[in-house]
Write a structure and sequence with these properties.
Layout lengths: L1 E3 L6 E3 L27 H16 L1 H14 L5 H26 L1
Length: about 100
């Protein structure tokens, strides 16, 4: 039997007290619904900056979205997907408009 880390989703040995990947405690006796669980300030800052950069600076937004998808907790990966889509749309639109401007 294994324990799944609530932060990063890593499967750990059932006797583990800390996650092998991120070090989060696996012995949470309190039951918290995902809606009431608060995000860290760093995660909120990354999400806000990610959206800003996705819209105005597509390459930086692309990098931040990939970071959230790879290293972010499961509950914020949806933001990474949204930022990735916005960044790709802006990059394609920018390339298209750049080509039209050259012709």
């Amino acid at each position: 039997m294994t324990k799944k880390c609530e932060d990063c989703g890593t499967l750990n040995d059932e006797h583990s007290e800390l996650c092998e990947k991120c070090g989060t405690s696996l012995n949470s006796n309190k039951s918290i619904s995902p809606e009431s669980e608060s995000m860290s300030m760093l995660t909120i800052i990354l999400i806000v900056l990610g959206f800003i950069f996705s819209i105005f600076f597509a390459l930086i937004g692309l990098i931040m979205s990939i970071y959230l998808l790879i290293r972010g907790p499961d509950r914020v990966k949806i933001f990474g997907i949204i930022m990735l889509i916005i960044s790709l749309i802006n990059m394609i639109a920018g390339a298209y408009l750049g080509v039209i401007g050259i012709i």
